[in-house]
Design goal:
298 residues
Amino acid sequence: MKNLRAILMPIAIILGILLPQASVLAPTLPFQIGTMMLLTFIGKVPPQEHGYTFKIEVRAFIASLFLLALLWISVEVFGLPREVLLGGAIICLCPPANAAPAMAKMLGGNPVLALKIFLSGHLIACFSIPIIYGYLTGSEAGFADIALRIFNSIQPIISIPLALALGVRSFYPELADKVAKFSKYTIFIWTFSVFVILAKASRDIREMGFADLWNSGTLPMLAIVALVICILQFVLGWFCDKKHPIESSQSMGQKNTTLVIWIASLYAGPVAAIAPTCYVVWQNLVLTYMSAKVKPKK
């Protein structure tokens, strides 16, 4: 699976950039996110110490808020474009990716712990993204209105798959076990979603004018901000918890970019969405490096 990921992801990235016509598939992104959520949630979670789950995610959330504060100060002090703040902020607030438990397992970590971090991270994101991102983007529409709209956009994608998964797991455990076997194929859905995301970004950048975005410094600035945040989140995650560095690093560094790119496109515009789109590329490069360099624990 590790080798398959190393092959599929670069192909998806390259094809997405070269085929902007595939952006017509962008309306399917919420359904792709929901499907990945369902396949992740429906797995049977064995008993495991609960204290660390919430502790790791809270530490990751606090560290993300710290990065967001530094970004906000930098934007204000250096007079950077508003899109830099909006693009970087949604990355900082982004919950863990569906693939985080699988990646933690590949690196020798505890996939059960990573799965529980994933669950708690999305519950936190249901409220943190509407409140914080709603404040940042709600100057025209009003904070309460935009926060409610973001909440109503996010929570069905999380709550409906979670409710379905818990319902099937409770009343039809045998069916849940059969469905859970397909969870290993979420990598294909995730790869396809990356392809669609980059195709949409490629189309948006072409329409806005690649040369204009590059010459103005907006595009390289957003790419650099995404790279710096990516590296810092993986590093901070690794050192946030000495007992579970792999799980902590994956929970903080590997992000559900499909979800937040969609949110950024809806509420902050295509320019701000470039930052989390660039994060897709940097994140997968870091994960490829970790796959090659981090030796799984026995």
